[in-house]
Amino acid sequence: MKILVTGFDPFSTDKINPAFETVKRLPDSIADATILKLEIPTAFKRCGEVVHQEIVSAHPDYVLNVGQAGGRFGITPERIAINLDDGRIADNDNYRPINQPIEADGATAYFTQLPVNAMTRAIRKEGLPSSISLSAGTYVCNHIMYEVQYRRATEFPELKAGFMHIPFLPTQVVNRPNMPSQSLDDDICGVVEAIKTMVEMDGRSDVDSIE
Amino acid sequence: MKILVTGFDPFSTDKINPAFETVKRLPDSIADATILKLEIPTAFKRCGEVVHQEIVSAHPDYVLNVGQAGGRFGITPERIAINLDDGRIADNDNYRPINQPIEADGATAYFTQLPVNAMTRAIRKEGLPSSISLSAGTYVCNHIMYEVQYRRATEFPELKAGFMHIPFLPTQVVNRPNMPSQSLDDDICGVVEAIKTMVEMDGRSDVDSIE
Amino acid sequence: MKILVTGFDPFSTDKINPAFETVKRLPDSIADATILKLEIPTAFKRCGEVVHQEIVSAHPDYVLNVGQAGGRFGITPERIAINLDDGRIADNDNYRPINQPIEADGATAYFTQLPVNAMTRAIRKEGLPSSISLSAGTYVCNHIMYEVQYRRATEFPELKAGFMHIPFLPTQVVNRPNMPSQSLDDDICGVVEAIKTMVEMDGRSDVDSIE
Amino acid sequence: MKILVTGFDPFSTDKINPAFETVKRLPDSIADATILKLEIPTAFKRCGEVVHQEIVSAHPDYVLNVGQAGGRFGITPERIAINLDDGRIADNDNYRPINQPIEADGATAYFTQLPVNAMTRAIRKEGLPSSISLSAGTYVCNHIMYEVQYRRATEFPELKAGFMHIPFLPTQVVNRPNMPSQSLDDDICGVVEAIKTMVEMDGRSDVDSIE
Q1: Is residue B89 part of a domain?
Q2: Do D185 and A183 make contact, defined as CB atoms within 8 angstroms?
Q3: pLDDT digits (tens, 9 = 90+) for B183-209
Q4: What does pTM read for this prediction?
Q5: Whole domain around residue B185: which residue ranges?
Q6: What is the CATH number of the domain that holds D71?
C-alpha cells in the first residue's frame, strides 16, 4: 500500500508550518505501507496541481493532506470538504479569493473516505487530544481537501483521501497569548497513529461515533 | 413576502432555549414582510415534518430556522448543511443517531440561499458580534437546516432557506464558568436586523466576504 | 448611608468604557443608600487624588470602584489589591510604569472590606454570570483599588472599599473575535444587585465561599 | 548553591500530576546548583510542614514549588501569595477550607523573591509560552507558596522562594475538550530554563516587565 502525505509550507507571518515539519519527520514505512512525503505550496491556484501530478506519477492508494489550524487544541481529522474558496488573508501567491466556488461543476461537498472516528480514537489512546472536525474552513486547507476529492470523483475512483488539521507548535504561540499548542513530537506521534489506523481499517467500515 | 421563523424548544439540562425565546418575541412584521413564528421540537425524527407541514400550509417565501449554539460568542448565520446525523447526546425523544445520513438520496451538502455575508454585516452594524459559521454541527440544528434544503431541492424550488445559531443566554451560563452569552434583547435585535437584510437583499446577490 | 461609585473613562483604542457608562446610569438611591457617581481618569498618577478629594469632601461610608476587564465572562468583584504598578500599555497620560510599588510604605496587599461572596451570589441570583476574582491586575484598576485601601489604612479607618470588574460591551467585541461581552443593561442590573447586597450585609460577616 | 524543588502529588480525579512528573525528571544539577527534589502532598494541613522540615534539614538557598494549573496555556511563575485558603474542592485529606486565613499573624500577602520577569523571558527564548501570573489561586498551590514565605519572614530570612504553575499534560485533556496542554518534555525544558535563570540572576535585580 502507498500513502501520499502532504504538508503545507509556511504562510502569513509564520516562518514555520507544523504541517510539513511533521510530515517530513514521518517514517518511510508505517504498518507496512510506504509513506510518500510532499511539501505543497500554501497557494490556492498551485497546490491542487502539485498533488494531482504526484497522484498521477506515484499511484498512491491513499492521500492524507495535513495542515495547520491555529487555535485548535488537538489533532482534528476533517470529515468534509466544501466547494468554496473564501480567504480571510491572501495566500503565498498574494491571491485572495472571495466567495468563489472551487470547481464550477463540482459537488457542493464531499465526505472523506478516511476512517475519522477510528483515527480520532487511536490518537486519544496515545494520550493526545483529538476530535473530528466538521469544517476545514474556506482557505487553502479546505481547497486541497476538496480538490483531491474532486479529482477522485472525476479521475481516480479507487483513491481514498482526507485531511487532518494539527495545532500551532509551542514556538508559534510564544507571542500569541492564550493560544493552545502541541509539540512536534506529539504531532508526529498522532499522525503516525492515524496512518496506522487507516491501514488497519482498510476495507472495513467506520461507523462508531466518538465524543 | 412571508417569512417562516422557527425556534427549537429546550433540550438536555436546559429549561430554556434562547431560540424560541427570541423567535416568539419578534414583531409580526419586519420590513413589510409577514413573520410566521413556530416552535419546533428538538427531535430528529419530528422537527422536519413539523416545518414541512407549515411550508405546505403557509407557503412562506423564506424559512429561517434559529437554534442555540452554546459556546459561541455571537450570532452565526450558517453557510451549509451536511447530510449527517451524529448526536453527542440524545434528543428530546431520547433518540441518538450515530453517523447516519439524513436522506439516503440527498446531496452531501446544500448551501444556504440566505445572504449570510450581508446579514452578518448588518448585525455588526448594530454593535453586536456576528460571523458566518461553516458548520451547523451534526445535531438537530444541522438536521433541520438540511431537511428544509432537501425539501427545497425536491419539492419547493422557489423557497429560500437558512439557519442562524445564537449564543447561550446569560442565565444559562451562571453555572457554566467561562462560557460566553448574549442577552435576549440583543438576540432579538440581531435576528430582526438579519431578517431586514434578507428582505432588502431579496433578488440580489451576496458576494462580499466579511472578516 | 453614602456610597461613592466610580467608573474609569475610555482608554487605549476603545472610545467607550463600560465602567462609567454603567456608573452614570445607576439610580441615585439604592436600598436607601445615596449613590454618588464619579468618572475618574485612566491615569496612574491622577486617579488616586481624584477619589481622595471626593472622600474628603463627601464622606462616603463605602467606595466601590468599577473598571473594565476585557476578556472576562461576567462581573467579578475583586478580593485583593497589590502594591504593584506594571503597565502592559501606557495610560491616558502616556505614562507606563514598569514594576513599581504604588506606595513605598504600603502593605504588600490589602483585602477588600466588601462582602464579595454575597455580592457574587446576588448577581447570580439575577441570572447573570459572576465570580470572585483574585487579581485586579497591575494596571490602573488595581492601582485605584490599592490607593483607596492605602488611604483607608492611613486616613479613613471607618471606610469600606472595593473594586468590581465588568466585561466588554457587545459593541467592543464586534471586531474582537471570540471575546465575551455583556450588555449595558445587565452591567447595570449586576452592579445594582451588588450594591444592594453591600447595604444589606453592612455590619455582618461574609464567610461562605461560592463556586 | 542548593535549590529545593517540590511537586504536588495527584489530586481530585487525575491520576497524574505534571508537577512532580516534571520535578522528578529534573537533572540533579543545573548551572552548578544542586537540585533537591521532593514530592509533597496535595493537603492544606500537611504540605507546609513537609517543606519546612526539608528546609530545616537541607538548608536550601532557594525553594521553588511547582504545581498544576489546569486551563493555563504555558508556564506561569507566580508573583505573589495571599493569606487565604478557600477550596473549590476538598484536598487529598478530604479537607476543604472556606475563606480561612492561612496564618493569623501573617501578612496579607508576600511577593516572591524569584526573578519572575527574567524567568518568563528565558522560557520564551526556548520557544515555549510563558507569562507572569498575579494569582496562585486559593487552593493548595497558593497555600504552600504562602507558607514558605511566612516561614521565610519568621524563620529563614536568607531564603529565596517562589512558585511556578504548569499546564495540564496532553493525556489529561483527552477527555477535557478545548483545554490547553503542554508536553512533559516541554515542562521539563521550561523548568530547567527557569532554574538556570534563578541561578544566573542570583544577587541581581529583576526590574524589566514582560508582555
Answers
A1: yes
A2: yes
A3: 999 999 999 999 999 999 998 888 666
A4: 0.96
A5: 2-200
A6: 3.40.630.20
